Inverse folding.
């Protein structure tokens, strides 16, 4: 295998040459931009008898894939990755070392699968493990679906990657995948990276897991609102093509934005609740700024994790205010397209890149009356303004935080 | 076989394997459970143990053990401590959901409305949280006040190795000053599905910047197979044996 690390005497600049997304807003970055500009909530009736009002689903037909016949999140991921790959037009540059880094979610289980996979193995109200094991050992999709790294490996093979990493960090997964790819290019380990995430928890067991946790809104998602009561589940996938700046210029690629820095942190507090003062969130943001070589006043917009949960929004705005004051525009797109869980960091990265490219900062769909306990300038509606740098937050269960800084590309 | 060009120092390491914790035991290899592993003895936060699957318990206990071997741990600011873990999603016990699912099968096939009405109350509210693969990070960071950079890798057998690699890079970049890195996994119940011997285990290292090049020999790589399928713990356990033999030399 030889040496796996090449020494890199200087840090490379890293740029984004494609950013594509599949979400409840539609297929592609433009569809997301329109929904975020208009502040439209894309939730629709959950259709489940569970006590859940809205789910933000991808409404377009998404084709199945023979490798993942029953895993919707993989279909979404494949579609988004193909869009990004095509947009970057990388076909003639496959010889350059590519990395693939993916934030991925838990397995999806449908009622049909419950019927087929689980019920036959219930005996006297207990599972018969041997029976289930025999069933799962034959060639079928279920065991494959439950291996989270299988999707990342699939993409790595498809796009002939040198290295692949599947990262699972709950709701920070995709942001951490982007950070990992960014650092790998910057230090010279690879030249380009396909980075992003995918998830769909829109199935009974997925919704159930959040429902029993009390995390879902009983009406609609209202980030930072005084009456907020939880999030709206979304689904989607987003992928970026990151490249070393010199290589992107060499091939005449369209540069959408520059990745300037990334920061991660642990709350070191409680596996299921954020630090009440948002200290872990603040550390992630501070590190991302340091990594980017920027000061707080050089950031023009913060895309908040902003799930609409009472504790999470409060902690995040305290962290934002302590670092940026209350004069920087902040918004959450989860009221519009829902919380895409493991994909959220990538979908929101695309939203940030669109904000830089188009000069429109998204508002916060669902917000009616801002909670006065949330000490930040929350944008209710989108505004047209050109900013130079934006910061995007993703925070996950376990107290795992990741912040990314993107900037307008300047030669 | 693998050779990082970045100089590093292994400050401490700890291993829990089906064969035991010392070099001789590792050399003998073995399959199955870690013998005499008692989570309640090794994890002081007994209240949270029920939220941990076996793989998480192994990881959390192993990290507690390796951190206890670092005398200057408290002198390093929490913000400068990093944690990198290879782990799999925590499937949990099959019967976590049995009662709830059975309540939804009264008519012979799955009924979502029955499930909503009767099943939900039979599921532990933190069932989702138990299943996350980053639980080793979540619990251990809280216990050892690790506030710095971090990453969880969910990549099967490669997870632990990638965690170690990323930790070394983070130290080299001066993003942190000390790193806990390794992997833990439990595949014992998957033996029938995989059709090969399966094990549980964990191995974690504490790394700091230093003068040594970390190499993984072919011999070490081969050794990683002597516990059967052991998931994300494979490479860290193999590396632990290599370190034992280096220390002896």
């Amino acid at each position: 295998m030889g040496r796996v690390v090449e020494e890199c005497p200087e840090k490379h600049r890293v740029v984004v040459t494609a950013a594509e997304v599949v979400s409840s807003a539609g297929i592609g970055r433009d569809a997301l931009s329109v929904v975020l500009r208009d502040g439209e909530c894309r939730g629709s009736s959950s259709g489940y008898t569970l006590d859940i009002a809205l789910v933000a689903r991808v409404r377009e037909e998404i084709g199945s894939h023979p490798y993942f016949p029953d895993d919707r999140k993989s279909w979404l991921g494949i579609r988004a990755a193909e869009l990004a790959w095509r947009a970057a037009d990388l076909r003639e540059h496959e010889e350059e070392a590519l990395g693939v880094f993916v934030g991925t979610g838990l397995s999806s289980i449908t009622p049909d699968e419950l019927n087929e996979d689980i019920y036959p193995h219930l005996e006297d109200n207990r599972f018969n493990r041997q029976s289930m094991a025999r069933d799962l050992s034959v060639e079928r999709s279920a065991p494959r679906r439950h291996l989270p790294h299988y999707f990342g490996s699939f993409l790595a093979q498809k796009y002939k990657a040198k290295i692949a990493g599947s990262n699972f960090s709950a709701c920070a997964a995709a942001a951490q995948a982007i950070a990992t790819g960014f650092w790998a290019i910057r230090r010279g380990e690879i030249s380009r990276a396909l980075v992003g995430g995918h998830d769909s928890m829109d199935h009974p067991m997925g919704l159930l897991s959040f429902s029993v946790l009390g995390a879902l809104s009983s009406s609609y998602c209202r980030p930072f609102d005084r009456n907020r009561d939880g999030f709206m589940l979304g689904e989607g996938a987003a992928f970026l093509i990151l490249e070393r700046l010199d290589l992107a210029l060499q091939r005449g690629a369209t540069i959408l934005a520059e990745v300037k820095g990334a920061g991660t942190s642990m709350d070191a507090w409680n596996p299921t609740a954020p630090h009440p003062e948002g200290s872990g969130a603040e550390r992630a943001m501070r590190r991302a700024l340091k990594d980017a070589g920027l000061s707080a006043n050089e950031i023009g917009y913060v895309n908040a994790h902003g799930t609409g949960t009472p504790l999470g929004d409060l902690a995040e705005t305290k962290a934002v205010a302590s670092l940026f004051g209350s004069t920087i525009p902040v918004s959450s797109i989860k009221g519009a397209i829902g919380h895409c869980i493991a994909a959220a960091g990538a979908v929101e990265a695309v939203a940030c890149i669109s904000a830089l490219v188009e000069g429109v900062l998204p508002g916060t769909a669902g917000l009616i009356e801002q909670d006065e306990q949330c000490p930040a300038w929350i944008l209710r509606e989108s505004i047209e303004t050109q900013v130079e740098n934006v910061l995007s937050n993703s925070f996950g269960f376990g107290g795992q935080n990741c912040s990314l800084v993107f900037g307008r590309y300047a030669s | 076989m693998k050779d990082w060009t970045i100089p590093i120092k292994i400050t401490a390491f700890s291993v829990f394997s089906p064969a035991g914790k010392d070099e001789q035991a590792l050399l003998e290899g073995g399959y199955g459970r870690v013998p005499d592993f008692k989570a309640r003895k090794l994890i002081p936060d007994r209240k949270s143990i029920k939220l941990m699957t076996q793989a998480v318990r192994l990881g959390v206990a192993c990290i507690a053990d390796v951190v206890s071997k670092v005398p200057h741990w408290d002198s390093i600011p929490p913000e400068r401590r990093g944690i990198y873990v290879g782990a799999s999603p925590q499937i949990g016990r099959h019967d976590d959901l049995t009662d709830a699912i059975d309540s939804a099968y009264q008519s012979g096939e799955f009924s979502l409305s029955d499930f909503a009405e009767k099943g939900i109350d039979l599921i532990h509210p933190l069932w989702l949280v138990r299943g996350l693969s980053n639980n080793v990070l979540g619990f251990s960071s809280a216990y050892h006040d690790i506030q710095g950079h971090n990453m969880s890798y969910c990549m099967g057998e490669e997870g632990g190795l990638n965690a170690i690699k990323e930790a070394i890079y983070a130290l080299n970049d001066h993003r942190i000053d000390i790193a806990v890195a390794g992997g833990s996994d439990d595949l014992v119940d998957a033996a029938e599905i995989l059709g090969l011997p399966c094990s549980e285990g964990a191995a974690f290292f504490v790394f700091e910047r230093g003068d040594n090049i970390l190499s993984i020999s072919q011999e070490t790589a081969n050794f990683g197979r002597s516990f059967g399928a052991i998931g994300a713990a494979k490479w860290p356990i193999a590396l632990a044996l290599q370190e034992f033999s280096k220390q002896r030399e």
